[in-house]
Here is the input.
Amino acid sequence: MSPSIQHENEPKANGIRQRLDAILGCGQRTYTPTQLVIEKARGCDLWTVDGRRLIDFTSGVLVANLGHAHARFEELFRQYYGELPRNAYNMVAAVEVDAAERLVASMADNPKAQKVLWAASGSEGIQKAMWTALHKDPERTVIVATRGGFHGKKGLAGDVTGESSPNPNVRFISFPMYEDKPESFYRAELDALARDFPGEIALLITEPYLGAKGSFHPPKWYHQMLQAWCEEQGAAFILDEVQACHGRTGNMYAYQSYGIQPDLVVLGKGMANGEPAAAVVGRADLIDALAYGEGSDTFSGNPRACAAICATFDVFKEEGVVAHCQAVAPVVMQGLQGLVAKFPFAKCVRGEGLVFGLEIENPELANRCVLEAYRGTGELGVHFLGPLAEKVLRVSPPLIISEAEIAEAFEVIEAAWARIPA
Ligand SMILES: Cc1ncc(COP(=O)(O)O)c(C=O)c1O
Here is the structure.
């Protein structure tokens, strides 16, 4: 067992980290050099067990879009939840139907958003979305995915993640990243698949932007081309918005940012502001391809998840959360560009809405950046996720972050990173 992560002047946190390593396998968590030990969270602030405050640049992992312990959210959540049981398997609660209706209504600009299928995590939602297309027409067995995507680690979601697959039915196509290739390059890949597998393609699954690969946000024509190709092929076009949904890209849904209308949209993370919940929203003929029991499991669509979905929608509306995200997004972008201008190891920034990737020179320096931001000015730090794709810092604060909090965070980061030798 490798030695526990320990930090100076953190007696309580260090004790908990040691106990953690003795009792839990490290495979449980994604490596982060800070290993913040949390005691309390409110708004964009996190407090450690040793009493330090950190400004949250992660929203958990793009989950707490409304921030932590949001008073109005908590009030509405309790109202919707009422006296329902935590689990209503083989029962029906009205809040489940309300939440599903509200999800469909929230996608009124996509005529294909007709029905809902619940899941308890993003990767399960991805798997269920793929099942619907595979069940609808069992003759169609070929699965197309965009290379470098992250859809989860489990089952079919794992099969379409990354660059290669253990599943012989999966074919990867290119997703625009650093290179500047014309539309015809990507179209040629699709045409080749259509030639090789006529009438056999069940689905194409992609992300609005490559998140875990380091924040690569494609031009709009890319997704529009994928959608048109799926229509030609009769294949289901599945958009993985597990991370991008509920305001993250500066629109309620990323499909709106990219001007597309997917057959199935998979939602997770921010949809219930922290309650574990995921959903597939899309074409009724696909969702109805699953018979009784084929998409059910213990926790999907439970009353707490559905109450949280309804409360999240209310707060988005009451507080104009999407408009706020659009207003503060350029302020965060400016702050990040300031870091690129000031620190030679900060190479470039990519992003949209309130989801950015700040590329650092190398993995070692990227980890150092996370660590120094955590140490901050002593009392106050900034909390980052461990680097993505080894050297890209994910910046994804709660969508309700204020300009004053953004300014405070960048002041701390600048002071902290000045300790890193260039
Ligand atoms: C785009 C995307 N899809 C799917 C998933 C998997 O979601 P979960 O971890 O809830 O299974 C994630 C999680 O990070 C994600 O970012």
Summary: The mean pLDDT is 97. The two ends are 33 Å apart (CA to CA). The longest strand covers residues 346-352.
